[in-house]
Amino acid sequence: MSDDGTKKKVGQIILWVSTVAFGGLMLLAGATKFLQPEMWVENFEGWGYPGALAYLIGGLEMAGAVALFVPRFATYAGGMIALIMCVAALTLIMNPGTLGPPTIPLINVIGFTAIAYARRNQRWTP
Q1: pLDDT at 20
Q2: Which is deepest, 15, 38, 40, 68, by most CB within 10 Å?
Q3: In terms of C-beta density within 10 A (0-12 exposed, 13-18 middle, 19 or more buried), how is residue 74 classed?
Q4: Closest CA to 26 of 63, 53, 79, 75
Q5: pLDDT, position 99
Q6: Geometric angle at alpha carbon 78, from 32 and 120, rounded to 5°
Q7: Distance CA 38, CA 7 (A)
Q8: How far lies 39's CA from each of 32, 65, 67, 81, 115, in Å?
């Protein structure tokens, strides 16, 4: 196998491992909005958002995580989740000590943006 072929294969493996890791964790994060609704509704209201927004965000996180596994939709899903994580990081910065530092959402922004960028040539275009 040529060096270019090996690099491409290694790159694809890294992309899929990243997709599984970030997508799986986001699926769990979205699910917690439904499995522990009292905690999340209270947090959202404490941050100044409507409590019902927790369900919408949880649903978007889960839908985005699933769509991340379909290369044609991964660019859009990664972008959507990165945007949600930007807002999450800003919320945690403006409300220190409520749920922890904004480190995890910021790592997610980088990871999901990288996945979206890596899949850009495979995206669905109408």
Answers
A1: 97
A2: 68
A3: buried
A4: 63
A5: 85
A6: 160
A7: 47
A8: 9, 22, 27, 21, 30
How many CB atoms within 10 Å of residue 116? 20
The token pair at 58 is 């949880």
The half-sphere exposure of 35 on its side-chain side, counting CA atoms within 13 A, is: 7
DSSP letters for 69-83: TSHHHHHHHHHHHHH
Q: Where are the domains of the chain?
A: 3-122
SS3 (DSSP) at 109: helix
CA atoms within 13 A on the CB side of 51: 11
Tens-digit pLDDT string for the chain (126 aa): 568 889 999 999 999 999 999 999 999 999 999 999 999 999 999 999 999 999 999 999 999 999 999 999 999 999 999 999 999 999 999 999 888 899 999 999 999 999 999 999 988 887
User: Which amino acid does the sequence have at 52?
Assistant: A
